[in-house]
């Protein structure tokens, strides 16, 4: 009898923990109904129009029973991060498999708010050949941390990984791959121009955040500065090394200032990655505050080996 009682208690505790409300009522209202423009200046409205939007459930909501995860989600993991996991999933309404981002169990309120912001940004930006396509989301249980974000599936993975494979496989035939490398540069620039014209700052452009579809076309992903600002602020206070400092502009490292200009800086570092076949920028350098001093004094990335001295 005591054993049965203990089991019941443990199950009850587990259910309570899972059902705990992660988001406040205001968080949910802001996502589903949008934010009043009266609380923002005109400048803020122009810069952050996606924050003011309400989630278009009629267009983007996907029923939970449409997701076919199968018996074991682990078989279909495409990647993972601090936020959670990305799975390859079949969703009933789509002809082909899609990518589904799912937060970890027990995720924080800040993580959920960031992911909801990502949904707003992607739906606001819209379709472009070189930007990852947002297809929809399951949002009915966001208050308890359950959320599925659906995007197109890029079967060739990240540009960074692809570049590293190219570097290993084509070292004796460099001339033949230059057209492809230049195409990557052009496609990323095209996608970034589109994002910029929408008034959205990427904030974390790098080869790892560019995906390749089945035709090897670049798709910019993981964009939207406000989704990451909290982590950057925590970094500044704790001086941890998980900030993507190798790709950030001087003003970003000094004052957390993000703009189209800082995105251009990151694009320059991404170009270096492309022509260095996915190598790590500033190799041999570890993070410390002196890195910012060196950048401010004129230190820059060295020329990739495959480029001519005139570059």
TrEMBL record:
Q: Which CDD domains match?
A: PTKc
Kindly list the places in or outside the cell where this protein is found, as annotated in its UniProt entry: Membrane
- Entry annotated with the keyword Glycoprotein: no
Q: What's in the keyword line of the UniProt record?
A: ATP-binding, Nucleotide-binding, Signal
Pfam families referenced in this protein's UniProt entry, alphabetically: PK_Tyr_Ser-Thr
Q: Which residues form the signal peptide?
A: 1-18
Give the reactions, separated by semicolons, that this protein catalyses.
L-tyrosyl-[protein] + ATP = O-phospho-L-tyrosyl-[protein] + ADP + H(+)
Q: Which organism is this protein's natural source?
A: Orchesella dallaii
Name the domain of life.
Answer: Eukaryota
Q: InterPro entries attached here?
A: Kinase-like_dom_sf (IPR011009), Prot_kinase_dom (IPR000719), Protein_kinase_ATP_BS (IPR017441), RTK (IPR050122), Ser-Thr/Tyr_kinase_cat_dom (IPR001245), Tyr_kinase_AS (IPR008266)
| Record's bilayer topology term | Single-pass membrane protein
Q: Where would I find the Protein kinase domain in this sequence?
A: 72-311
Residues at which ATP binds: 101
Signal recorded as keyword? yes
**Listed name of the protein:** Protein kinase domain-containing protein
């Amino acid at each position: 009898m005591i054993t049965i009682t203990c089991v019941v208690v443990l199950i009850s505790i587990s259910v309570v923990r899972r059902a705990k409300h992660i988001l406040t009522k205001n968080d949910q209202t802001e996502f589903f109904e949008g934010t009043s423009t009266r609380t923002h200046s005109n400048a803020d409205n122009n810069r952050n129009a996606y924050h003011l939007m309400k989630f278009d459930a009629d267009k983007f909501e996907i029923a939970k029973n449409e997701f076919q995860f199968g018996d074991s989600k682990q078989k279909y993991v495409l990647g993972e991060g601090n936020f959670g996991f990305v799975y390859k999933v079949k969703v009933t309404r789509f002809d082909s498999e899609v990518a589904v981002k799912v937060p970890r169990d027990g995720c924080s309120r800040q993580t959920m708010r960031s992911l909801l912001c990502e949904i707003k940004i992607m739906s606001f930006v819209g379709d472009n050949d070189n930007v990852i396509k947002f297809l929809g989301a399951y949002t009915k249980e966001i208050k308890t941390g359950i959320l599925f974000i659906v995007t197109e599936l890029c079967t060739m993975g990240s540009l960074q990984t692809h570049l590293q494979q190219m570097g290993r496989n084509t070292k004796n035939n460099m001339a033949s791959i230059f057209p492809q490398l230049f195409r990557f540069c052009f496609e990323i620039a095209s996608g970034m121009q589109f994002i910029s014209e929408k008034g959205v700052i990427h904030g974390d452009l790098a080869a790892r955040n560019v995906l390749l579809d089945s035709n090897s076309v670049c798709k910019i992903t993981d964009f939207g500065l406000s989704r990451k600002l909290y982590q950057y602020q925590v970094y500044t206070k704790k001086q941890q090394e998980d900030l993507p400092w190798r790709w950030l502009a001087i003003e970003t490292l000094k004052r957390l200032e993000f703009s189209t200009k800082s995105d251009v800086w990151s694009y320059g570092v991404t170009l270096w990655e492309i022509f260095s076949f996915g190598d790590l920028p500033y190799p041999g350098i570890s993070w410390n505050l002196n890195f910012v001093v060196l950048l401010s004094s004129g230190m820059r990335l060295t020329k990739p080996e495959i480029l001519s001295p005139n570059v």
